[in-house]
Design brief:
Strand order of the largest sheet: 1-2-3
Distance between the termini: 79 Å
Order of helices and strands: HHHHEEEHHHEEHHHHH
CATH class of the domain at 42-163 and 179-224: Mainly Alpha
CATH topology of the domain at 42-163 and 179-224: hpI Integrase, Chain A
CATH superfamily of the domain at 42-163 and 179-224: Intergrase catalytic core
Shape: extended
Structural class: mainly alpha
Length: 254
């Protein structure tokens, strides 16, 4: 005859069973990024844009890499919201639900004007949206490019450029296959833009935060602190660059 258990004993038994189940059946959490840089390097960015064979996507991802726009903000750019005299587009910031303005860098502005001249009827038909949706796109009321479609195109260009890197799989419930987690995503272009701006302003958090359109400047620090090359340089400086170079010579046998 089994002994009768009190409420405290039952709770403890449940806890033991649950912990045992977690260890045996639940997938481990994917590793966090840590020092794994989510942004593009200069070389990676050049290779990425060299792989793009479509003007529209080259311009779209250019807005992300040069102005730090999120993909959902970039696809919604409308020529009616661009002041062509001052080169200022009106941006609907997704996270803060606010309206902001930035200045379009001159090379990107020239590229924008050339694109508008090349596709006037498509842009007009799309109600002024610069990144009009594809002719074969699924039916949807919005006339601008679908953000998920743009993400898929981004992935195809990343693979074409030989830059695809899977660092882990997402944690899914038992019985479901994990989703592959890629180092470079469309948001990596925003990371690149913000980090580059921070370098140009000598790490000015106030200016960089305004450029990134962050409501809280502490969020900007996440982007500023992702410069792995600078980190590696300082590590070498701290622990003798000459010694590191000597070891390279020994290893290479020269």
């Amino acid at each position: 005859m089994l002994p009768r258990l009190g409420k405290t004993d039952i709770k403890m038994l449940r806890s033991i069973i649950y912990q045992h189940w977690q260890k045996r059946f639940r997938k481990s959490q994917p590793p966090k990024y840590g020092s794994l840089d989510k942004g593009f390097t200069e070389q990676e960015l050049q290779a990425f844009f060299a792989a793009i064979d479509n003007e529209k996507f080259g311009l779209l991802f250019g807005y992300q890499a040069r102005l730090g726009l999120r993909i959902g903000e970039a696809v919604r750019i409308n020529i009616k919201d661009i002041n062509f005299e001052s080169r200022e587009p009106l941006i609907q910031t997704e996270k803060a639900s606010t309206l902001d303005t930035l200045i379009i860098p001159l090379p990107l502005f020239r590229q924008t004007v050339a694109f508008i001249k090349a596709y006037p009827s498509q842009i007009e038909k799309a109600g002024g949206y610069l990144f009009f949706k594809e002719p074969n796109a699924r039916k949807r009321p919005e006339q601008y490019l679908d953000a998920n479609y743009a993400r898929n195109m981004f992935c195809s260009y990343i693979r074409k450029a030989g830059l695809d890197m899977v660092y882990a799989e997402s944690d899914e419930p038992a019985g479901k296959q994990g989703r592959k987690l890629h180092r470079l995503t469309t948001h990596s272009l925003r990371h690149y833009a913000i980090t580059s701006f921070a370098k140009q302003t000598n790490g000015n958090v106030v200016l960089t935060s305004r450029f990134a359109r962050h409501a809280d400047s502490s969020n900007t620090m996440i982007y500023i602190s992702t410069d792995k090359q600078e980190l590696y340089k300082e590590i070498d400086n701290a622990f003798s660059l000459n010694e590191a170079q000597r070891l390279k010579v020994v290893i290479s046998g020269r």
